Amino acid sequence: GVGGLFIDRHGSLLASLMLASTKDYAMRLNIYPGLIHLGDWSPGLFVALNRDEKWLAGIHIAWPSWQPVALATGF
User: Fold this and answer.
1) What is the 3-state secondary structure (H, E, C) of the chain?
2) What is d(CA 43, CA 7) in angstroms, rounded to the nearest whole number?
3) Which of 19, 34, 57, 69 is the most exposed place for a label (fewest CB within 10 A)?
4) pTM for the complete prediction?
Protein backbone atom coordinates (compact mmCIF):
# COMPACT_ATOMS: atom_id res chain seq x y z
CA GLY A 1 0.00 0.00 0.00
CA VAL A 2 0.86 3.65 -0.31
CA GLY A 3 -0.06 6.60 1.88
CA GLY A 4 0.83 10.24 1.77
CA LEU A 5 0.44 13.55 3.50
CA PHE A 6 0.73 16.78 1.51
CA ILE A 7 0.89 20.38 2.70
CA ASP A 8 0.22 23.25 0.32
CA ARG A 9 -0.33 26.97 0.50
CA HIS A 10 -2.55 28.53 -2.16
CA GLY A 11 -1.99 25.57 -4.52
CA SER A 12 1.81 25.52 -4.07
CA LEU A 13 3.18 22.26 -2.61
CA LEU A 14 5.31 22.95 0.50
CA ALA A 15 5.89 19.46 1.93
CA SER A 16 5.08 15.83 1.28
CA LEU A 17 5.49 12.62 3.24
CA MET A 18 5.02 9.33 1.41
CA LEU A 19 4.96 5.89 3.05
CA ALA A 20 4.91 2.94 0.67
CA SER A 21 5.45 -0.78 0.44
CA THR A 22 7.18 -0.57 -2.93
CA LYS A 23 10.51 -1.96 -4.11
CA ASP A 24 12.20 1.46 -3.93
CA TYR A 25 11.52 3.66 -0.91
CA ALA A 26 9.66 2.86 2.29
CA MET A 27 9.52 6.54 3.27
CA ARG A 28 10.14 9.84 1.49
CA LEU A 29 9.93 13.30 3.01
CA ASN A 30 10.23 16.41 0.83
CA ILE A 31 10.24 19.93 2.21
CA TYR A 32 10.13 22.30 -0.73
CA PRO A 33 11.57 25.82 -0.88
CA GLY A 34 9.02 28.24 0.53
CA LEU A 35 8.19 26.40 3.77
CA ILE A 36 11.36 27.25 5.73
CA HIS A 37 12.92 30.72 5.53
CA LEU A 38 16.39 31.62 6.82
CA GLY A 39 16.77 35.27 5.87
CA ASP A 40 16.69 35.48 2.06
CA TRP A 41 17.30 31.73 1.79
CA SER A 42 14.50 29.18 1.58
CA PRO A 43 16.04 25.69 1.44
CA GLY A 44 14.44 22.51 0.23
CA LEU A 45 15.15 19.22 2.02
CA PHE A 46 14.78 15.57 1.03
CA VAL A 47 15.04 12.48 3.25
CA ALA A 48 14.29 8.91 2.18
CA LEU A 49 14.58 5.43 3.62
CA ASN A 50 14.92 2.63 1.09
CA ARG A 51 13.89 -1.01 1.48
CA ASP A 52 17.44 -1.94 2.61
CA GLU A 53 17.05 0.52 5.51
CA LYS A 54 19.62 2.88 4.01
CA TRP A 55 19.04 6.60 4.23
CA LEU A 56 19.38 9.22 1.53
CA ALA A 57 19.31 12.93 2.34
CA GLY A 58 19.66 16.05 0.29
CA ILE A 59 19.33 19.80 0.35
CA HIS A 60 18.34 22.28 -2.32
CA ILE A 61 20.42 25.44 -2.09
CA ALA A 62 19.41 28.63 -3.88
CA TRP A 63 19.63 32.28 -2.99
CA PRO A 64 17.63 34.79 -5.04
CA SER A 65 20.60 35.64 -7.31
CA TRP A 66 21.91 32.02 -7.70
CA GLN A 67 21.06 29.13 -9.96
CA PRO A 68 19.62 26.29 -7.81
CA VAL A 69 22.05 23.59 -6.64
CA ALA A 70 21.10 20.28 -5.03
CA LEU A 71 23.39 18.10 -2.91
CA ALA A 72 22.58 14.56 -1.78
CA THR A 73 24.29 11.75 0.11
CA GLY A 74 23.47 8.27 1.29
CA PHE A 75 24.22 6.88 4.74
Assistant:
1) CEEEEEEEECCEEEEEEEEECCCCEEEEEEECCCCCCECCECCEEEEEEECCCCEEEEEEECCCCCCCEEEEEEC
2) 16
3) 69
4) 0.76
